[in-house]
Design a protein that fits this description.
Farnesyl Diphosphate Synthase, mainly alpha, two-stranded antiparallel ribbon, 15 helices, homodimer
Chain lengths: ~290, ~290
């Protein structure tokens, strides 16, 4: 049930991503590179989360489409830059050549820059039924959550933490910012667009925080137990980079116990909503904890 | 007279840039790197242009400060990324080590990303007396002018045009986008904030387009005739990269004639304004054409 739901929403998101991409034509290498980077078979988890919140409130999905697409552009740019030789130096992502392997390093840097820059254009471009005040609030949140005090901050500390054991506090900072912020972002924006009450906003935010942490712990676990064919990148890269992870701090078994607890926490956060209305959110939390890619 | 005007405005801009930078503390390398990259003794021409338009309309400068600072953040990010080994591979800028030489390549990529991302946060953060509708319009313009259809597009075509002779049309595309768009941007935004009439808007836009072109032609000329001590980077880099420039297409003497014409055009665009009110703009056009750095 959840799988077909996610699949139908993924298609809706991909369709809209392509509509935005179709308008970009020149310079060809940038336009093609943006398409290549973003149309990579991603799960579209972030945009889907935004749509899920809108559905919870019975809002039209159109209200959130531009922002949902914009967030995916930002997610995509972050992968393009993270894969660069100076950073993670990855050659494959989801079984395809990474952007710099395909288009060269100079173009990949600019393609990432273009994805990031264009995301803000998308948010302003078409969100017609959302007030200007809300759009400004949304843009502010996007830039804060993806900048120095968000995703970029997490990425930098992650790099600094290679080849050494770091504290749980630092590991939590990395997780909270590097992956966490961009998973919170669509949920909070969905709540803003839907005029959620303060209590509901807090509940959804807690859910997304727990979901983000679960996502990351499972990522750490998959780096040990996963299969190349499914996750589309080499196994054991954390070990190779001597990264501190949940398994390296707590061991594999304890990490799985923590993961289970965090998933329960995510579900419990939504207790203030009628249970049948948040079925998708609950199933998604379970799915995140059991995913194999 | 112009010099002291520019100097006082530069100080105002620098003060405000520092106020924004002071709020950024962690991760240290990103915060320090952003400071290092943006506080590089730049002329702040773009932010000053925005303030000049506000003054022309008797508006409070505070109305434009956040956007002016944001544009300088974007200008600074573009320099950080352009200097990277995969792109221009420059070691010095304004006589100081480039960001990647100082902080390493991985950090420099992220520092550039952080400058770009944070610029949007600045625009939304504090422009209290500008309507939300205008802020959205401003953000849209910033992202369009600095993205694939603006600065990044120009930069990509510039790279593609190395080691070959390109047409005047391509050269004009590069100039119009790589440097031109970011010089138009503050002028147009100033006109939006000031509620300029359509005619005035067009006049100011033409001025900024001519100014941008003059700036670039003079840049090409300085790459041949300039002095390292003044421009802070090696002379002759265009020749070395076999770049098409105004001098390579038209020769040095004809390029200077074109430059003089473009500067006249810039000044003439402002004929609809009372002459005494646009003295600074006129002097600035002359200054751009005669600058030695």
């Amino acid at each position: 049930m959840l799988k077909s739901y996610l699949e139908s929403k993924r298609k809706l998101i991909d369709l809209n991503i392509e509509l935005y991409l179709d308008k970009l034509v020149y310079p060809k290498v940038i336009a093609e590179g943006m398409k290549y980077s973003i149309l990579n078979g991603g799960k579209r988890l972030r945009p889907i989360l935004l749509l899920m919140v809108l559905e919870l409130y019975g809002k039209k999905l159109e209200l959130g489409i531009p922002t949902a697409v914009a967030i995916e552009f930002i997610h995509s740019y972050s992968l393009v830059h993270d894969d660069l030789p100076a950073l993670d130096n990855d050659e494959y992502r989801r079984g395809k050549l990474t952007t710099h392997k395909k288009f060269g390093e100079a173009a990949a840097i600019l393609i990432g820059d273009a994805l990031l820059t264009h995301s803000f254009s998308i948010v302003t471009d078409k969100t017609k039924d959302v007030s200007y005040e809300k759009i400004v609030k949304i843009i502010s949140m996007i830039s804060r959550y993806s900048g120095i005090n968000g995703m970029i901050g997490g990425q930098m500390v992650d790099i600094e933490s290679e080849k050494k054991m770091v504290s749980l506090e630092t590991l939590e900072y990395i997780h909270r910012n590097k992956t966490g912020k961009l998973l919170k972002l669509p949920v909070e924006i969905g709540a803003i667009i839907s005029d959620a009450s303060d209590d509901e906003y807090t509940a959804l935010k807690r859910y997304s925080e727990a979901l983000g942490l679960a996502f990351q712990i499972q990522d750490d676990i998959l780096d040990i137990e996963g299969e190349f064919e499914k996750i589309g990148k080499p196994i054991g890269s954390d070990l190779e980079l001597e990264k501190t992870t949940y398994p390296s701090l707590f061991g594999l078994i304890e990490s799985k116990t923590i993961l289970a607890k965090v998933i329960e926490e995510a579900k419990r956060s939504l207790d203030i909503f009628e249970k049948e209305k948040v079925q998708n959110f609950i199933q998604l939390a379970d799915y995140i904890g059991n995913r194999d890619n």
